[in-house]
């Protein structure tokens, strides 16, 4: 009996387990799925908690509910991965699992201690995150009674998972305080290490215009060096200061400490991964899925969905001694909630930046790319349903092809665009 070991039962690990079980001979393969947490969190829902769009119980489910029959689920932290010895040690009972193939899907998480002073006196007093279930719930309670002041939303460094979530937060904050009749009492500042609202030029200009229309000030190229929670000020490495009454922090995102303990990652604990095959660059029997990989595309659930088939096809090819052929093109799409029941949609890949147009079909859409629409907002809400009922269960979505397509997209600035690819 051979062993396929999957580390992490989040978005990628769960989706992968559900798909691979249908492909492998159960008499030949034992599949083990390990996670330290019983609960599956729908992380896009963290964004909605502070604005009371979602209730906490709506965005969690027991992990075991999504583990397919035939897969052994082990609840344990991982002590050590030893890729040279094809061996993983769990903290629970010091169990050692010898594997033939390993899938690493341990994701990424916030590390507030990486920013000097962030965990000082103000943490969860007037400094909150919304990238964790606990953080988002605490921020929800704070906002309910907040009387207003200067709210600074700070992205500490990139990459962060769902890179548009901080932007969505400021858009929704604008809507939330307007609805509560106190928008004039809240100044909203968006501070980012990027030169503008997003990483790519066309989207940056468009999103920058929306921020301006909503009266949200952008403090660009702000690389945070310190939080001074005695004076309620954040300071950049080039000595710029931004005072705050409420700091909504998106701290440094890093891969799990087990990757560091096992000497498998870069300085942010991300694992070097072939961007087309999803195979580890260093170990040929290891595949890295989702946020744990160092891929130059967004860290997002939608990306996990699009990369899944290429990963599985290549893994099966390797198992069968065939050439790896399937190619992941970096396809990503992100709905951006912009408040007042509207949203935008970005669709891009490794080579083509987000462009305006319609998605997935030309003329018909129904989603508008890089433009606000109510349909996009409904799409974002429907994504939650799709996540629990279709994506996690590894069911194919025929109307969302894995490969990026230029169909429906307008590329009016093709000359400029070519310079940025
Ligand atoms: C606020 C917010 C909004 C978002 N919005 C969107 C969105 O709108 N659209 C979108 O596509 N994506 C969105 N995302 C991103 C999306 O949730 C992630 O990209 C996706 O969950 C990544 O899947 P993953 O499997 O790589 O990691 P995860 O889903 O995080 O799973 C990692 C799993 O590994 C387990 N694990 C880690 N280390 C260990 C260990 N040492 N031992 C045992 N188990 C371990 C964890 O418990 C976890 O279950 C959002 C994320 C956040 C935080």
Give an overview of the whole structure.
The chain has 421 residues and is of the alpha/beta class. The protein folds into 3 domains: 2-107 and 256-319, FAD/NAD(P)-binding domain, CATH 3.50.50.60; 112-253, 3-Layer(bba) Sandwich (FAD/NAD(P)-binding domain), CATH 3.50.50; 333-420, no CATH class. 24% of the residues lie in helices and 26% in strands. The chain contains 8 helices and 24 strands. The protein has helices at residues 11-20, 133-145, 165-179, 201-213, 257-261, 301-319, 374-391, 414-420; strands spanning 2-7, 29-35, 39-41, 60-62, 71-75, 78-82, 87-90, 96-98, 101-104, 108-110, 127-128, 149-155, 186-191, 217-219, 224-228, 233-236, 241-243, 246-250, 253-255, 286-288, 332-339, 342-348, 357-361, 365-369. The strands form 8 sheets. The chain has a 5-stranded parallel beta sheet, covered by helices on one side. The longest helix is centred in the last third of the chain and has 19 residues, at 301-319. The termini are far apart. 44% of the residues are buried. Mean pLDDT is 95; it is low at 414-421. Bound molecules: flavin-adenine dinucleotide.
